[in-house]
Amino acid sequence: MVGSIAAIGAGLAVIGAGIGIGQVGGKAMEGIARQPEAASKIQTAMIIAAALVEGVALFGVVVALLGNNVGA
Amino acid sequence: MYFNCIFNFKKISLSAVFALFFAFFTLQAQAQDSIDSASSVEKMVVKEDHPEHHEEKFDPTVTILEHISDTHDWHLWGHTSIHLPVILYTPAGLEFFSSGNFLNEHHESVDYTGKYNTYRNEEEHIRVIGADGKVDEQASAKVIDFSITKNVAALFIAVFIILVMFIGVAKTYKKRVGKAPKGFQSVVEPFIVFVRDDIARPNIGYKYERFMPLLLTIFFFIWINNLLGLIPIFPGGANVTGNIAVTFVLSAMVLIVVNVKGNKYYWSHIFKPDVPFWLLPIMWVVEIIGIISKPFALMIRLFANITAGHIIVLSLISLIFIFKTLAIAPVSIAFVLFMDVLELLVAFLQAFIFTMLTALFIGSAVEEHH
Amino acid sequence: MELVTPSIGLVFWTVIAFLFLLLLLKKFAWSPILNLIHDRERSIESALTAAENAKDELKRLTNENEQLLKEARAERDLILKEARELKEQIVNDAKKTAQVEGAKMIAKAKQEINSQKAAALDEVKNQVSHLSLAIAERVLRKEFSDKAKQEELVSDLIKEVKLN
């Protein structure tokens, strides 16, 4: 039971990260389309931002993992 | 930074071929196993040190966790594995013996009586067995395991590879002073220059030179270990950078370097931020949490990314055994192939991000003006 | 839980392995590699700068040569001009001197001619006076016999003299 709840928690964390990374990527694409000469800078910034968003999601996943293991 | 090169078709196809090769290798190894024992399905569960699981149903979670966690012997194929040394610190003294002692000739798990205690390998935790044949929890808590486990061995192999690679390259540099790079040197140089020009210099500023060795070591250490982790056969296969202990050490190094090298502006920003005085205590708490949470995020990010990659690949392989049919194998292999290629990208990306954020933190700590 | 709990043994070995790697690489790999890359970049940069400088130098030299050539040409023109002027002056001077000399000679000649003429006139006058004296003598000899005729002759002769 706890495992299932933990899995739902991980899933929710992933939804947030998905939205976040989607936003980052989409805006970066727009930025690159608007200013192709700044592509490399935008890419760097995009990857850092994506990594930060992803980090938060991974916290969620780790907490879910912890919860799962503690419950079991 | 030009990531476009990563998407270069030739390279992708090359890595695809490699991934395919490795995937078949895994499959072949497993097929080999199935000849050895009657059931290939059970084989995944049957670790040589857990013969009591013989009749157990295939449980992907157990299998996957076994594969991504640390072990005391390095499983090669079938019943063959490298028995790594066990080093135990006990209050009475150091114990040193081979992990092969935990197995008898029938590959069954047994207890081993060392110099000071009797030990049992319980789910890869070395426990002390009391006189009554049961685990002595109190004594076990005092025993610290410094064994050369699979991850430690893989770590040493990676360190050896990195040393050979870069000291060799350094020799080439010394031999060819002032000339254009050649051979392996020209493979490595773009990455070194990349770390210098795209990671260190823009984030740290003119003081970047002092931190170059640390950044380069972190970058290549993580990258090489990530790549070795993707190789499913012997020298690789260990989940080194996907182990929280390793990422913990790396991020602890970052924490120490950032705070030791932090200048007065960095500390005044933490202890004397520009806020009303009654907010200061709250700010201190927030800032100190900030100091800890940045490297903590680094630790979790690298650990979770690499572990997640391994879990996904193993889950896809497990599909074959869950459905108990080879028909699912092509689908599974195709997905594994895709994931392996993606993991190649992630291996580089995580090394890059770890180094990048390290440089960013160092940069904020050594920044002169405010 | 186990997955996210660092084991002390692995932490210990990782610290050792990482520090070992860091120190060895720093000493034997990163310092020489970074220094040599840096040196190479600097040497390339200095070579480029030197090439640029050489180009500038060449340009400067070409300009200087051109300048020198121009100056030399100007000098030559000047010298030629001066020479021409000098020549003209000399010719003019010569012409002037010749003119003055010629005028002088002409004047002298004129003077000579005048004096010669005067001398000649004197001579002629003398001759005339002699002649007239001779005539007068003859007339006197012939006419003294006839008084009337003598007087007539004298007056005629005097008339004739006046005509001259």
Automatic annotation (TrEMBL), chain A:
One term under GO cellular component: proton-transporting ATP synthase complex
Q: How does it sit in the membrane?
A: Multi-pass membrane protein
Transmembrane stretches in the record are 6-24, 45-66
Q: Name one GO molecular function term.
A: proton-transporting ATP synthase activity, rotational mechanism
User: Where is the protein localized?
Assistant: Cell membrane; Membrane
Pfam families, from UniProt? ATP-synt_C (PF00137)
Site (Reversibly protonated during proton transport) location in chain: 54
Ordered alphabetically, the record's keywords are: ATP synthesis, Cell membrane, CF(0), Hydrogen ion transport, Ion transport, Lipid-binding, Membrane, Transmembrane, Transmembrane helix, Transport
Pinpoint the V-ATPase proteolipid subunit C-like domain residues.
Answer: 6-66
Domain of life of the organism in this record?
Answer: Bacteria
* Family according to the record: Belongs to the ATPase C chain family.
Role description: Key component of the F(0) channel; it plays a direct role in translocation across the membrane. A homomeric c-ring of between 10-14 subunits forms the central stalk rotor element with the F(1) delta and epsilon subunits. F(1)F(0) ATP synthase produces ATP from ADP in the presence of a proton or sodium gradient. F-type ATPases consist of two structural domains, F(1) containing the extramembraneous catalytic core and F(0) containing the membrane proton channel, linked together by a central stalk and a peripheral stalk. During catalysis, ATP synthesis in the catalytic domain of F(1) is coupled via a rotary mechanism of the central stalk subunits to proton translocation.
Q: What is this protein called?
A: ATP synthase subunit c
Q: Give the organism, scientific name.
A: Hufsiella arboris
Name of the gene = atpE
TrEMBL record, chain B:
| Localization per record | Cell membrane; Membrane
Instruction: Tell me how this protein sits in the membrane.
Output: Multi-pass membrane protein
What domain of life does the native source organism fall in? Bacteria
Q: Which GO terms describe its cellular component?
A: plasma membrane; proton-transporting ATP synthase complex
Question: What parts of the sequence cross the membrane?
Answer: 152-170, 211-234, 240-258, 278-304, 310-337, 344-366
Keyword annotations for this protein? ATP synthesis, Cell membrane, CF(0), Hydrogen ion transport, Ion transport, Membrane, Signal, Transmembrane, Transmembrane helix, Transport
Signal peptide positions are 1-31
Which SUPFAM superfamilies does this UniProt record tie to the protein?
A: F1F0 ATP synthase subunit A
Q: Name one GO molecular function term.
A: proton-transporting ATP synthase activity, rotational mechanism
Q: Does this entry carry the keyword NADP?
A: no
Keyword Nucleus in annotation: no
Report any Pfam family annotated for this entry.
ATP-synt_A
**InterPro entries from the UniProt entry:** ATP_synth_F0_asu, ATP_synth_F0_asu_bact/mt, F0_ATP_A_sf
Q: Which family does it belong to?
A: Belongs to the ATPase A chain family.
What is the role of the protein in this entry? Key component of the proton channel; it plays a direct role in the translocation of protons across the membrane.
- What is the name listed in the Swiss-Prot or TrEMBL entry for this protein? ATP synthase subunit a
Organism field: Hufsiella arboris
Q: What is the lineage of its organism?
A: Bacteria, Pseudomonadati, Bacteroidota, Sphingobacteriia, Sphingobacteriales
From TrEMBL, chain C:
This protein's name: ATP synthase subunit b
- Where is the protein localized? Cell membrane; Endomembrane system
The cross-references to NCBIfam families, in alphabetical order and at most eight, read: ATP_synt_b (TIGR01144), PRK14471.1 (NF011041)
Q: In this entry, which stretches build a coiled coil?
A: 41-89
Q: Species name for this entry?
A: Hufsiella arboris
What protein family does this chain belong to? Belongs to the ATPase B chain family.
For this protein, the record's Gene3D superfamilies field holds: F1F0 ATP synthase subunit B, membrane domain
Describe its membrane topology: Single-pass membrane protein
Identify the gene encoding this protein. atpF
Going by the UniProt record, its keywords in alphabetical order are: ATP synthesis, Cell membrane, CF(0), Coiled coil, Hydrogen ion transport, Ion transport, Membrane, Transmembrane, Transmembrane helix, Transport
Which is a Gene Ontology cellular component entry for this protein?
endomembrane system
Assembly description: F-type ATPases have 2 components, F(1) - the catalytic core - and F(0) - the membrane proton channel. F(1) has five subunits: alpha(3), beta(3), gamma(1), delta(1), epsilon(1). F(0) has four main subunits: a(1), b(2) and c(10-14). The alpha and beta chains form an alternating ring which encloses part of the gamma chain. F(1) is attached to F(0) by a central stalk formed by the gamma and epsilon chains, while a peripheral stalk is formed by the delta and b chains. F-type ATPases have 2 components, F(1) - the catalytic core - and F(0) - the membrane proton channel. F(1) has five subunits: alpha(3), beta(3), gamma(1), delta(1), epsilon(1). F(0) has three main subunits: a(1), b(2) and c(10-14). The alpha and beta chains form an alternating ring which encloses part of the gamma chain. F(1) is attached to F(0) by a central stalk formed by the gamma and epsilon chains, while a peripheral stalk is formed by the delta and b chains.
